[in-house]
Amino acid sequence: MLKSLNTFLEKWMMLTTPLCLMIGVLFPEIAGKGVPYVPYLFAVMTFIGGLKSDFRDITGVLKHPLPLLLSMLSLRLLVPLLALFTGHLIFPDNLNLITGIVLEFIVPGAVVAIMWTSIYHGNTPLILSLVVVDTILAPLTVPLTLHVLLGSDVAIDTMDMMRQLLIMVALPAVAAMGLNELTRGRTKKTLPGKLALLSKFCLFLVVISNSSKISGYVRHMTAEHVLVTGVILMLAVSGYLLGWILAVLSRREYETKVAMVFGSGMRNISSGAVIAATYFPAEVVFPVMIGTVFQQILAAFFGTLLSRANAGKQN
Question: Which of 47, 141, 174, 307 is the most exposed place for a label (fewest CB within 10 A)?
Fold first, then answer.
């Protein structure tokens, strides 16, 4: 029964995640009570996601690193720069919105990208390596990128942010891979499937809790916030497209192309929401959280495009 429920939720992730966001928006007083527990829920999610990989997966990908490097280029540099340029172009007088837009696109790659890559028969070791490497580096890359792109305009407690990312992301990922090594891969074969449903419930609780922070903005949408929503959608689409373009230019096969598209396009929005809610004004949270509405829908859309394009080549 649990396996069937997990399969059902995987099939309808594009609808369940936005539904969770709306629950938090409609019932902020109740949903907000979960905010203090979000970092721990996130650590559980990262640990479960990390159970699907081990250090040998990363070693194998590093022997042929070009797809990984190109994905990191898009994830860490190209899309964040595009987000910064777009934010300053459209909202030149609102530093909070610029910060939220940039933060949305500098957080680590999404653990759920592993699931989508698997669904569309992509290169699993590549997406595992990308997510794990980017996740482990996040305590350094996220504060550094914020400082480089936004500079002294934004006051950041860098050390505390690094500590938060270590607890939520890096340490659970390393612990999961270490457990796989200690058990010689036994946990890799058994635990991810058994804990997949728990991971999804943690994700739903994180989205519900964090979305309570933007309840006022969503329930009283202004023309500016509608524009922000459109900007986030455009930038999210650009992440997938850049991954696809880089895969085509480097002449990657279908499996690697799938991993590069999802790796470049999907972000760990929940971690960005935690950072935004912890260190910035509430207005910064809105551009970050609104991306939750699009992420699973876009993943399904681009997965379908990839599958059809591949089928067309084979016919």
Answer: 307
Of 167, 49, 163, 60, nearest to 111 by C-alpha is: 49
Contact 236, 253 (CB under 8 A): no
Q: What is the mean pLDDT of each run of 10 residues along the chain (315 residues)?
A: 79 79 90 87 82 78 91 94 96 92 89 79 85 81 86 61 73 86 85 85 85 80 91 96 96 94 89 80 86 81 89 71
| 210 to 71, 115, 168, 183: CA distances (angstroms) | 28, 23, 15, 35
For residue 34, the surrounding DSSP H or E stretch is: none
Residues 155, 150: Cα–Cα separation, whole Å: 9
With the CA atoms of 144, 59, 299 and 147 taken in that order, what torsion angle do they form, in degrees rounded to the nearest 10? 0
Nearest to 275 by CA among 143, 152, 170: 143
DSSP 3-state percent helix, strand, coil across the chain (nearest 5): 85, 0, 15
Would you say 111 and 91 are in contact if contact means Cβ atoms under 8 Å apart?
Answer: no
Tell whether the torsion through CA atoms of 89, 90, 93 and 97 is positive or negative. Answer: negative
Q: DSSP characters for 83-148? A: HHHHHHHH-TT-HHHHHHHHHHTTSPBPTHHHHHHHHTT--HHHHHHHHHHHHHHHHHHHHHHHHH
Paired strand residues for 267: 109
